[in-house]
Structure formats: C-alpha cells, structure tokens
Amino acid sequence: MGAAARWALAVMACLWLAWCTAVGPLYWEDSSIAAFGWPNALYGVTAFVAYLLIIVALVRRGRREPLFGRTSAAPAGALTPRRFPPVRPGSGHDATVNDVANGSPVTNETNKTNGINGTDDPAPRTRRARRTAAARTGLTRARMFLARWTVRLTDRRWKIWTILFAGWLWVPTTLLAAFGADLRSQAREFSWAWNQWTGLKQPYIGFFSFAPMDIYPTAHYLWPADPTYLTDQHNIVLTLWYGSTMAASRHLTGSNDWGVIVLAAVQFLFAVCCTAATVHRFLNLPWLRRWDVRTSRDDFAHPERGLSVRPRRFAHPEMGTRPALPPQAAHAGVRLAVLLFFLVCPLPVFATISLTKSPLFAFAFLWAFGIWYELYATGVLSGSRRTVIRLPRRTFAAFAAANCVMLISAKYAWYVLVFEFVLAILADRRRWATYVAALLLPTVLIHGGISLAVSSGRIIGGDPIESRGVQLQMIARVAQRDPDSIPDSAREELAPVFNLDQMADAYFPQDADPVKSSGIQSKKVSYRWRSVKPEDMKGFNQAWLEIVRANPVVAMDALMAKCYGYFDIADLPYVSMDYYVNSDYVQHNSTWIKYVNHDWRDWVACVAKSWGSIPVLGWVTHGNCYVIATLLIGAAEVVLRRWRALAWHLPLLLLMGVMITAPANDFERHMLPVAFCFAFLCLTFHRDSRKAADGDR
C-alpha cells in the first residue's frame, strides 16, 4: 500500500503537468476548456507518458538499475569486464596486436600471415591503426588535461568567485542596471516620507489626492490616523534601502541614476558571493576535508581514513604537496555544466543586476540551499558516529544572514522559513538549537518587528486583497465572458468592494494586477480601495462561491489561465528576465542611463528573447523548464523514500505554490530560486543514488 501511495503521488504530478500542457494551446488563443478537443487530448497523453517515463527512469537510476530490462545479477556498482573477440590460434593476430602496442615493427612474415588470403599486404591497415591509436591517445590526453585543469581551477571558493566575477563583469559594466516599476514606486514612497520628516506638507487623505499608497492600492481604512507614506508593499526594509540610496544620489548628483547603479553593483557582488559559496559547497564538499583533517590527521596507520594532502607531482616530490579533494567531489563535467549555466543562461545573468525583490530573494535562497546541503551531508556523518556535527561559526553566521536577507526581500519568506524549521526539527532534531537560532529567531525578530511597526501605525501594511488574486480573476472573467450568470445576491455583496463593469473591462487573463487597480493614476478603478470598509469584505468569499457555482467552466478557465504557464514546458514567459534590461523605465524614463549603451541593451535583450523562442533549445532559458524538472525529481524521491533529502527539498514545492497564487502567469522572476537550485538538486540525487547502491545509507 505504501508503494502504491507513493506511485499515486507521482502519477498525480504527471497528470497535473500533462493537464497544463494540454490546455496551454487553448489559452494561447484566449479560448476555453469548453473547446477541449482531440488535439489537446493528444498533447496531454503524450506529455503524461513522457513525464511518467522520466520518473520511472529516475527511479531506476536511483536504484542503480538499468533503464531497460531486468536488474543484473551482478552486485551494485560492480564493473562489467570488457569483452574482446576471441583470438584464433595461429592467426598471428595476438602477435600483431602486441607488436603494434609495443611499437615494434611488423615483419613481412607477420604481414603475410595476417593477409586475408595470405597474399594481401596489411601495411596500410597497420598505419591506419597506428594513426587511430595516436588520435585516440591525443584526445584522451587532451580530455584528461582539460578535466584536470577544470578541477584545479574550481577546487577553492576564491577561484570559483573569480570565475563568476570575471564571467559576469560585462553585465554591470555595460548594462549598468535593470529595473522596472517597483523600484520607482519604492523611490517615490521614501521620497514622500523624507519630505514629511523634513516638514514639507503633502496631501495625505482626500478623494482627489494621489499618494504613493494608491499606486499599489492599499485600502484607506488600513491607513493610520497619523500621516505616513511608507508601506510594506515591497517589504519595508528593502524600500528603505533602495529609497535612501536613490535619495542620496539625488542630493549629490541631481538624479536617481547613480544610486541605481550603486544598488545594481552591490546586488551583483552579493550574487557572486552567494553563487560562489553554494557552488563550492556542492562541488568540493569542504566539510569532508574539515572532517578528514580533524579525524585522521594523516594517520598512516589507518589508510582507509584518507590523507588531507597529496603530492603536486608524483614524479617530482620536491614540488611539495597540496590539499586533496574529497573522494566524493564533483568531476570536471559536472563542474563545467554548473558554471556554464550560471555564466550563460539569461536567468542568473540578468538577475545579478535586476533591482526587484525576487532576484535578491533567489540568490539568498541559493546561499541557504548550499548550507542546507552541508547540514544534510554532515547529518549522515554524525549519525554514523553518534555525535552531532555542528556548523562552524562562519557557516552558521552565513546561514543566519541568508535567512535574514530572504526575510527583508520577500514578504512570503517567513512562510518558507517556518516551513523549513518544522521540517528540520522532524528530520534532524539533534541540531534543534541551530535551527532555532538561524531560522526561528530571525523570523520572529524581522517579521515580528515589521508586524509591530504596522500595528503601531508607523508603516502601512499590505492590503489583504493582494492574496486573493485567484478569486479576483475568476470573478472578473465571469463578469467579462458571461455577466448574466452572476447572481443578484453576489452582485449586492460585491458592490461595496468592486465595480464589476470596471473589473470586466480591466480583466487580463495572465495578470491579476489590473483587476486590483494596481498601476499609475490613469488606471481603472475596479477595486474601491478609497471607500471600502472591513465589514464590506465579510461577504466576499460567499459571493465568490456563488459566482463559481453559477459558472464553473469560466471560473476554471480563470484559474488555469493565471497559472498553467509555470507547468507548461512549451509556454513562453509572460514576463522574462530580459524585460528588466530594456524596459521603458531604463531606456526612456531614466535621466542619463538611457543614453549609455541604449542599442546594446536592446540587442542583448533581443538575443536572449530569440534564444528563448527556439523550440526545445530555448527551454533551458525558461524558468518553467526547471520547475517541471524539479517536480519530477521530487516525485522520484518520494517513490524512492528519500525522506531526509525531501525534508530540505520540499521548500521548492512550497515556492511552486507561491507561483500559483502570484498575480501573474509564467512570471520568470518568481521561478528564479528553483532554477538556481536545479543543478545542485540533480547532483544530490546522483550522489544519493550512489550511496544507496554502495550500502552507505
């Protein structure tokens, strides 16, 4: 029953992915599931079979079984001896092969013996064999040379940091910065608050006034009695950091542009440090080196413990020694693939300078993800020795810092951290103090401090309507496509909160922000944020249920049109990361950045978009490709009962839930954490499979 339940979960994941793939073409044409036909069914069946086969292949790989056929009787990990063709006695083949291998000349008698009829001269074939052997030897030596130097250039954190810094340096130096509307809103909020602090009177509440809190509208009943212009819409700490930097830039230079460049440069350095630290942890496993040095001390009486050093050149011992790589460290091919992803893929490249909350959260999440792996790996070591391996002080400080950056960059981060804390206590309760100090304490201090500031009226909290994007899209789509089906009782309940006619006019299938009246002053006022009261929202859920029951097909269309793209491999992103590179806010609304490398930014964004538009080859540049692959690996881990690994992989699944409830469909910046961690997820799956085969679990 347990195996059946685990496979049922895997099948459900495949069914969800297949469903999103099947309905994708319908929503590309702004159609409905009512038009679902045989072509869509064919897409769904094909996707389901493909995804299920991938999970089966991952499971068999995880069990060290062949992909096809039954399991071999040979023990796991055993090498199959290489088979050579039989040598006929007296054929002279063994002598010729030995002579060629030893470099000795072949006699005429041997040539005659090796001839097909005893008369052909095999000298041309011998020369070809020698040339082929020489070519193979040269390729092997070149491959070994490249592999050796790839490992040598990535066996230390500072080397990886240097490679990433040099490889990404063209981004901040030529593109300068990338940003959108959120940054301008944060600058406006801080500017109004600064004016208030310096004694400049500004309109606060009034029907004709338009304060920063009205851009991403916050209901006026949430405003405190004493005027304040700071909100928690984009997280107050990030708003203060961005806003103060740009305010200082305006004071010193007369524009925001230098401040924007400084912010992009700081985020670039943060991205390099986070990525280098995580790549180093996964590729080099530094804690194994620390553990080996602490336990073996180069104990030559116990060679099974390994040595912490090895000769630089075995043929030249006078050159001294160098630290040895742990035996489980990644090989050259894996190292090269990981570095190529971070250096070439547009997702991490553009995220380094994109000044919005999601990239900052993604790099901090990646930083913490590497430390989670160290906790996971050292938990296995401590379990075998009945001891608790604690994080070094420097690593513990990095873990706490990464969680703090997540908390100040995204409001939903505290859900992720609390979820991680619960899973960590269940999976590794012996290190509960580490999780309390690095996870729970920052969450209580930062999130609790922001909540206290909101309750005291020092800042304005977010509007609860922000979490109702799915419901709003359902109501708006029904109001646009079939308004007559809305019951009168639902209209009466919604009248104090929403203007249904404006909702229908503002409805856009892939984005819920227009329905929430988010945007500039000329927006459509579908959400009555100026006049709505808390008691007006009491009947909202009941009205929504009535509308869904009255027209379930259109309501389901609204749900799927808002989230299917995150799980449809063929769907192009609604907003890709290249948007921030050449957005109007960069290219037209900035003071002088728009004149520097204007055409170059357009060209870079065009190249990235063109690459992403290529079928199959462009999938690697899209976040939904990594979301789908992560979900498949997670399903395989469930089938394989790798519960400890799932304990620190499940937050990735929680982030997928955040994507579904996000305002927009297939918004790439929401998928950055999953995309950044995917390569390391694959590496962990491979290592766990080898441990299971060797009986180390």
Automatic annotation (TrEMBL):
Disordered: region residues: 79-127
Pfam families: DUF6020
Biased composition (Polar residues): 99-117
Signal peptide: none
Entry's transmembrane regions: 7-28, 40-59, 160-181, 258-279, 336-355, 361-384, 396-426, 432-454, 646-664, 670-687
Keywords: Membrane, Transmembrane, Transmembrane helix
Name of the molecule in the record: Beta-carotene 15,15'-monooxygenase
